[in-house]
Amino acid sequence: MSLFMVTSAMRNEGKTMVANNLAVTLAYEYDIRVMLIDADLRAPCCHTMMGIKRDKGLSDILLHGTPFEEVLIHTGLGRLSMIGAGSPIEKPDELFTSTLMSNFLHEVKERYFDRVVIIDTVPLLPFPESRALSQQGAGIIPVAGEYGAAEAYLHAALNALEGRPWLGPLFNDARNHAAECE
Questions:
Q1: Is the distance from CB of 42 to CB of 165 less than 8 angstroms?
Q2: Of these four, 30, 97, 139, 153, which has the most CB atoms within 10 Å of its CB?
Q3: Given CA atoms 99, 62, 71, 75 in this order, what sign does their dihedral have?
Q4: Phi and psi torsions of 8, nearest 5°
Q5: Vertex 39, ends 36 and 45: CA angle to 5°?
Q6: What is the largest CA-CA distance in the chain?
Q7: What is the pLDDT along the chain (182 residues), one digit of tens a residue?
Q8: Which of 89, 37, 74 is CA-nearest to residue 58?
């Protein structure tokens, strides 16, 4: 299994669009089984981009023990399945630094060893969740919008990832997307 985390330095850089497009492209073009997980519990919108109703998801698995089968969405887009963000919660940062998240990622690795897993996360600098997830052994794809965060923020984000496996940064022109979702 390949596990990738998509993040950005700040909001409005197109990280969700990149995560969704990467997942769909792999699922269609390369006939790879792909799972997209919306782990941006602060401003989730993978489901919106996929045209799927927000329902149970990641937060419900972690907090209520909801079985994977109840939250896994088969999108109908190639071989792409998705776990949405789930029910809104307060203080998602505490959840991401807990053993619940570590156990969840371990179970994903065990259960879905035959898939590429792409996790859309919150931006690195304003929130701690992505830094906590980056310690879980995922390949990190930092997205930098051409008109997004200042260069200093990008450097600060990449410094926060020091010692962790990151691919990129991936430069993105997120002007049109920014108004939609992030």
A1: no
A2: 153
A3: negative
A4: -150, 170
A5: 75
A6: 42
A7: 688 999 998 888 889 999 999 999 999 887 789 999 999 999 999 988 888 887 899 999 999 999 999 999 999 999 999 999 999 998 898 888 889 999 999 899 888 888 999 999 999 988 888 888 888 777 899 888 776 567 778 778 888 878 887 887 777 775 554 445 65
A8: 37
Whole-model pTM over 0.70: yes
- For residue 114, give every residue at least 6 positions away whose Cβ sits within 8 Å of its Cβ, in sequence order, or none: 1, 33
DSSP structure string for 77-139:
STTEEEE---S--S-HHHHHTSHHHHHHHHHHHHHTTTSEEEEE---TTT-SHHHHHGGGS-E
Phi/psi for 119 (5° steps) reads -110, 120
Residues 6 or more apart whose Cβ sits within 8 Å of residue 102: 136
CA angle 8, 11, 15 (to 5 degrees): 45
Look at residue 36 and give its three-state secondary structure.
strand
| Whole-angstrom distance, CA of residue 139 vs CA of residue 92 | 22
Q: Which residues contact 152 (CB under 8 A, 6 or more apart)?
A: none
DSSP-derived letter for residue 169 is: P
Structure tokens at 127: 């929130």
